[in-house]
Design brief:
The chain is built from 11 helices and 12 strands. By secondary structure, it is of the alpha/beta class. The strands form 2 sheets. A 10-stranded mixed β-sheet has the order 1-2-3-4-7-8-9-10-11-12, with helices on both faces.
Length: 349
């Protein structure tokens, strides 16, 4: 089990230990936890009812890490807001706020960069810089809630990075986010998306049965998936589907498959039929995603006629399917695009 020293990554038990180790009374831990996870402070100075000496001693041993807003873009099309955040070491990450009738949804990053190498994704083009701390995942949500003054009701871990490649930090973030002493977000309102690290799917189903799992599939068979996603060289489609079935059986919940439609690549009628056969009998939902063009890749978005035909075939097989509404296309809201553009402009790309 990993351990984190920064103060916003500590759970209540660890924070209590840190407070008593600093020679303070235990009740200070609850005060400080409230400042960090309910009042969402941006600096230690805001903890007004905590003595300065206590703050200084604690923060020297357990620094307050978070995110600092660098740029913000608001879509003129649908109001989607994209945030570029800087971390304490200068790394850049991105988050997206999407407003729906059911509430505000925030898509957060789990890593600075990504090493998974999916061919159609901008996140992976610059490689992996490092994993995020639990505090840095959380603080994307906190900073957006603080900036907008509106409660975040849903969190999707689907931004830059592969969440299961930073597994323990992800788990700690979920625990802190759902803690009744913090924002107390229902775990049913948290979705985690993975490209398919099979052993972690089993572990995740066991540990967090209430959390929604989405698997990036993007192809109906092994050969095609290996062309798009290097992870498919490690885990076969058969292994992946067994893990998906385990999640459904263990949790009693529906699983989501993400399927990015690439023109003349994986969007033909025969591919839809193969996909339908692949998921037959599984309690699942397929999210069809018109792929976002990335200038470094040759992939183009499927036409609407192909997308609708693909959807119709799945529906004919009684599979629940939706076509994801494109959000914030005019502000490069797809994973990794804005971060990469910023790094190129600032000479770090």
């Amino acid at each position: 089990m990993e351990s984190w020293k920064d103060i916003r990554s500590l759970n209540m038990e660890e924070l209590t230990d840190a407070v008593t180790a600093a020679g303070e009374k235990k009740f200070r831990a609850k005060q400080i936890y409230g400042w960090l996870h309910q009042k969402l402070i941006r600096s230690g100075d805001e903890m007004k009812n905590v003595p300065a000496a206590c703050r200084e001693k604690l923060l020297k041993e357990h620094p307050l890490y978070g995110v600092t807003e660098v740029e913000r873009y608001v879509s003129k099309i649908d109001g989607t807001t994209k945030f570029l955040f800087a971390l304490h070491d200068g790394n850049i990450i991105e988050s997206v706020l999407m407003k729906y009738r059911h509430g505000n949804s925030v898509c957060i990053s789990s890593q600075a960069g990504c090493r998974m190498g999916c061919r159609f994704c901008a996140s992976t083009l610059l490689g992996l810089e490092r994993n995020l701390y639990p505090s840095e995942m959380l603080d994307q949500i906190y900073a957006i809630q603080k900036a907008t003054g509106e409660r975040v009701s849903h969190v999707v871990v689907m931004g830059t990075g592969e969440p299961f490649d930073n597994f323990e930090a992800l788990c700690r973030m979920i625990e802190l986010l759902s803690d009744e002493n913090g924002l107390h977000l229902s775990r049913r309102n948290i979705t985690v998306s993975t490209c398919g690290i099979v052993p972690k799917i089993y572990t995740f189903a066991d540990r967090y049965p209430q959390v929604t799992l989405a698997i990036s599939l993007h192809a109906p068979n092994d050969a095609m998936r290996r062309e798009l996603m290097p992870i498919a060289n490690r885990y076969s489609m058969e292994e992946l589907m067994k893990a998906a079935a385990y999640y459904v059986e263990k949790t009693g919940r529906r699983i989501t498959f993400e399927y990015s439609l690439v023109k003349d690549n994986n969007d033909c009628r025969e591919h839809a039929e193969m996909l339908a056969a692949l998921v037959k009998g599984l309690n699942c939902h397929i999210n069809l995603i018109p792929v976002n063009p990335v200038k470094e890749r040759e992939y183009e978005q499927s036409g609407m006629e192909s997308i609708r035909a693909f959807q119709h075939i799945l529906e004919k097989h009684h599979i629940q399917v939706t076509v994801r509404r494109e959000m914030g296309r005019d502000i490069s809201a797809a994973c990794g695009q804005l971060r990469k553009g910023y790094k190129e402009r600032s000479g770090n790309g």
